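step=encode ok
step=design start
structure_in=
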């Protein structure tokens, strides 16, 4: 399975489900630029659920 890191352009249409601010890719997670929540990556797919934040 290809688990290449997400590129910034992959997240251009996706926002934080809690505060609706942009997201940025990090090596092991996706971080919200507004509320600073971090969402896990599972097999390269971001899990954007508020109750699963890191």
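sequence_out=
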């Amino acid at each position: 399975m290809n688990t290449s890191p997400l590129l910034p352009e992959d997240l251009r249409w996706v926002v934080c489900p809690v505060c609706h601010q942009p997201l940025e890719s990090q090596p092991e997670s996706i971080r919200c630029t507004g509320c600073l929540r971090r969402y896990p990556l599972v097999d390269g797919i971001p899990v954007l659920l508020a109750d699963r934040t890191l």
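step=design ok
step=annotate ok -> The beta strands are 23-25, 29-32, 38-42, 45-46.
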